[in-house]
């Protein structure tokens, strides 16, 4: 009997355990770990559905390439060197445009450059022409080479040291006094001249034609003194011949003390006198020919190159002579021809030689053209362009 009771108890317990099993399973599935697993599976399924949806929508839309944004340019530091170039749409006025008063298409605005050679100016008939603040020369002269009339003058009679421009007189006298193949002996005094020089050897003989080339093209001080001593016996005696020659050309304010133009007490000339001297000298065919070439070949095969950059930088250059000393600064005299117009430009005491030369030459030809039209009774253009360099910035005459 007892075992029957025990068996009943065991069976009852088993039945109670079996009835409570679904609750245990439900409680287990509602635990935090089970919830996390279920959420992860749902999220993964949603992600796959989103990707599939994007692929389907992108297939319907046209493809556009992705354009990357350009990087912002880095501002240059003080140590960087930037290259500049001319505005591509700017038009440089030609000689025809200058005469006809055609205004070039202006370039993009740029800051003023202080009046250097890269400026284009407008000249009005009503406005007075004044280049004094556009050039650095202390004195300047533009002369009509045919009539001798003054086209432009800035302190033309102010006396100053001429530097090597006075070698024009030395060259003219040498060409008139010496034969081409006449030999010239170089003294020790001539050989010891400071540069510019061609380093002539004391006691050696040289053909006069070679020394004249050295004098006029290379501006050699030793050659000028050797020629002076050959012609007059000494440099002071030759300087007196130079002064007399200048007087015969109408240069009454010129006094020469050296054959080379090196600074000397009592020596002086003026821009007006330089223009007159050079204009007369260029009437000598041999002199004009020597100054018209960029280089010459001496009898010994040595090449002598000209110091006159205007020959290859300024249109219409027929010849010119440069000069420089500390006292004189930069000096220049030259002749220019365009069409039937001929002018002589002389300047003294310049700090920017070639920019000043270019400005004076261009201004001279425009003013010469206006004067010719006025004499002929023809109406001149209300505006004439003056090309003073490479840029395309414009100024009114009222601003000059």
Describe the protein's architecture and organization.
- The chain has helices at about 1-30, 30-60, 95-100, 165-175, 190, 210-215, 220-230, 235-250, 270-280, 285-290, 310-315, 355-375; strands spanning about 120-125, 140-145, 150-155, 185, 205, 295, 305, 315-325, 330-340, 340-350, 385, 395.
- The chain is of the alpha+beta class.
- It has a domain at about 125-380: 3-Layer(aba) Sandwich (Beta-lactamase).
- Helix 7 crosses helix 8.
- It is elongated and about 170 Å long.
- The model is unreliable at about 20-40, about 75-130 and about 380-400 (pLDDT under 50).
Mind sketching the topology for me?
Blueprint: H1 2-29, H2 32-60, H3 95-100, E1 120-124, E2 139-144, E3 150-154, H4 167-177, E4 183-185, H5 188-191, E5 205-207, H6 208-216, H7 221-232, H8 235-248, H9 271-281, H10 285-291, E6 295-297, E7 303-305, H11 310-313, E8 317-325, E9 329-338, E10 341-350, H12 353-375, E11 383-387, E12 394-395
Parallel strand pairs: 1-12
Antiparallel strand pairs: 1-11, 2-3, 2-10, 4-5, 6-7, 8-9, 9-10
Helix pairs in contact: 4-6, 4-7, 6-7, 7-8
Side by side, the strands of the main sheet go 3-2-10-9-8
Beta strand %: 15-25%
Number of strands: 12
- Poorly predicted spans: 21-39, 76-128, 382-400
Q: For the terminal residues, how far apart are their CA atoms? A: 142 Å
CATH H-level homologous superfamily name of one domain:
DD-peptidase/beta-lactamase superfamily
Shape: elongated
**Radius of gyration, CA atoms, in whole angstroms:** 45 Å
Q: Look up the CATH topology of one domain.
A: Beta-lactamase
List the secondary-structure elements in sequence, H or E: HHHEEEHEHEHHHHHEEHEEEHEE
The appropriate CATH architecture of one domain is: 3-Layer(aba) Sandwich
Largest sheet: 5 strands, antiparallel
Our count of helices gives: 12
Could you name the CATH class of one domain? Alpha Beta
């Amino acid at each position: 009997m007892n075992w029957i009771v025990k068996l009943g108890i065991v069976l009852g317990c088993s039945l109670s355990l079996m009835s409570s099993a679904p609750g245990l399973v439900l409680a287990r599935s509602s635990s935090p770990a089970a919830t996390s697993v279920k959420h992860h599976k749902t999220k993964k399924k949603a992600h796959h559905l989103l990707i599939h949806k994007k692929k389907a929508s992108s297939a319907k839309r046209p493809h556009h390439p992705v354009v990357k944004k350009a990087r912002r340019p880095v501002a240059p530091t003080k140590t960087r060197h930037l290259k500049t170039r001319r505005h591509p749409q700017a038009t440089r006025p030609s000689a025809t445009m200058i005469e006809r008063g055609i205004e070039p298409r202006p370039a993009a605005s740029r800051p003023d450059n202080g009046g250097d050679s890269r400026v284009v100016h407008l000249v009005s008939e009503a406005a007075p022409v004044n280049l004094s603040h556009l050039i650095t020369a202390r004195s300047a002269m533009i002369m009509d080479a045919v009539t001798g009339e003054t086209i432009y003058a800035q302190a033309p009679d102010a006396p100053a040291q001429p530097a090597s421009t006075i070698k024009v007189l030395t060259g003219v006298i040498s060409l008139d006094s010496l034969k081409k193949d006449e030999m010239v002996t170089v003294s020790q005094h001539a050989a010891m001249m400071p540069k510019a020089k061609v380093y002539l050897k004391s006691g050696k003989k040289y053909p006069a034609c070679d020394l004249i080339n050295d004098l006029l093209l290379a501006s050699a001080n030793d050659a000028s003194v050797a020629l002076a001593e050959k012609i007059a016996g000494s440099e002071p005696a030759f300087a007196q011949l130079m002064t007399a020659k200048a007087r015969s050309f109408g240069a009454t304010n010129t006094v020469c003390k050296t054959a080379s133009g090196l600074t000397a007490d009592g020596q002086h000339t003026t821009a007006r006198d330089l223009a007159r001297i050079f204009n007369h000298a260029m009437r000598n065919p041999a002199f004009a020919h020597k100054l018209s070439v960029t280089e010459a070949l001496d009898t010994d095969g040595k090449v002598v190159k000209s110091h006159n950059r205007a020959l290859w930088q300024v249109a219409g250059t027929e010849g010119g002579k440069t000069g420089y000393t500390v006292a004189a600064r930069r000096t220049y005299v030259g002749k220019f021809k365009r069409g039937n117009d001929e002018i002589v430009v002389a300047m003294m005491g310049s700090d920017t030689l070639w920019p000043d030369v270019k400005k004076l030459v261009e201004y001279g030809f425009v003013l010469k053209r206006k004067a010719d039209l006025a004499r002929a009774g023809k109406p001149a253009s209300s505006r004439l362009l003056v090309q003073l360099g490479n840029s395309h910035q414009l100024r009114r005459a009222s601003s000059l």
